[in-house]
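Before relying on records like the one below, remember that each one covers exactly one chain. Contacts with other chains, cofactors or solvent are not represented anywhere in the record.
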Amino acid sequence: MRGEVIDLLSWYIRRDFPILVGGLRDSVQDHLEDIWLPTLVSQYYSEKQDNFIEFIRSLREKSFSHLSGRLEEVTSDILGELLLDQIRYSLKPEVKILGDLHVATSMRYKQNNEVLFERRPYYDQALAKIIDNFFPELKDSFPAHRHADTIIYRQFIPVQIESSNGGQLRQYYYSFGKLSALLAYLRAIDVNAENIIAALPSPVLFDLECLFSPHHPGSTKYSFRSTGIVKISDSYDMSAFTGGETPLDSYLKPLLGGTVLKPQILWKVPSQGKFYNIPQINGINIHPQSYMKDLINGVNDAFKVLEKQHAKIKRIIEDNEIGIRIVLRPTREYRLILLQYYFPHIYEKNNFEEYLKQELQGIDYIYAFGEEQSSILHEIKALKKGVIPKFFAEIHSKEVITPAGDTAAILTDTPFDVWNEYTKNLSSIQKDIITSLREAYPSL
C-alpha cells in the first residue's frame, strides 16, 4: 500500500514541478508522506471506499486541493524552496536532501560525495586555526571542506564502526575524550547521535553548527550535559556516545498499517532512525564504560593544552568572523508541531497561524533574550511553509538573524562575552566533564 502512496506523491511532484531533479523528488517524498498520509486515509473512509489501493490510484484524476487546500499550499511551498536551491546550487539528478527541511539557502545536500550548504558568517576558518595549531591530532574529526563563492563543499565521510582490535578502540575513546573537552570549551550544543559517526579510529562531527552557546534563561546554566555528548536519561538517550542503542518511540510521524480494505494510521511506532555513532567488535556495541580511563585521559590531556594556549585561542576567536546557528527552541518540538497539524482533526478545526502561535507559546526558549523580540513571527513564517525555522548569529553581536538577514531576537549578551566569562575557570569545566562521564557511564 505504501508503494502506491509514494507513486502518487511522485506523480504529483512531476506534474506540478516537472523540472525538479529526480534526487530532490525522491528524497522529499518521505516528508510529503508525513503531510498527506493521515488525510489520504481519512478521505478513504469519508468517501466510503472499499479498496485503498484503488482509491489512491483514482486520485491521479483529481486535484489534491479537493483533499486539503491547506496541505496542498504547504506542499507547494516546500517544493518551491527546493526548486530555488536547485537553481542556485545547480543541483544534479543524484542529489539528496540531508536532515530537516528549511527555507531555501538553509538546507544541506549530498552531491558527488560532498555535502554542500550556504556559507554564512561561519566558524570554519577560526576552528581550522585552532585545530591546526593546537589539536592537529583531532583533524580527522572535522571533515575537510572547500569554498566556492558563498557555498561550502564538505567532504562526505563513510561510516566505519567495525573494529578488530581493542587498540583502535582505545584510540577512538581517547580522541573522543579530547574532542569532548574541546567542544565543552567552545560551548557546543546539539552534538548528539544524529550528528556524529564512528569512522574508526576517529569520532567524526558531520553537522556541527551550534558553538559558543549564549546564556540560558533563568537559573539554567550551560554544562557538559548541555552538549548532547553524554547520556542524560536511560529512557530517552540520543547522546553522541550511546544514543540510538535503546529503542525509541517515534510520535506523530504517520505510518500506514492495517489492510487494503481497512487501512490505519499508526502514530506511535518504533523509531526508524539509524545511527552509526557506537563502535563495534564483531557486531557488538562497545560502550564508553569499557574505555573510561582512555576517555578521561583524553579530557585531561586536552585541558593541559587549553590551559597553556587559552590566550592564543582567545585571540583567534576575537580576530575572526565567527557565525553560529541559534536553535531558539528544540528542533524536535518544531517537528512535532507540524506533524500534529497534518492530522485532519487538527487542521480542519484550527487556523494554521493561530495554531502555530499557541503551540509555540507553550515551548520555552533555549536562550535568554534581552529586548522584546519578534522571533515567533519568523518561526511562524517558516513553519507555515512546512519547514523547520533556522536562525544565526555572529558571536560578537547580540542580534539573532533569519536566513534572509532580518533581526529575529536580541540576546542578553554576545556569545563571545558569554564564552569569555565561561572560560575564566577552565578547571571547573574539566571537572564537570569528568564528573558527568562517570555518572552517565559507571565503570563496569
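The longest helix spans residues 292-319.
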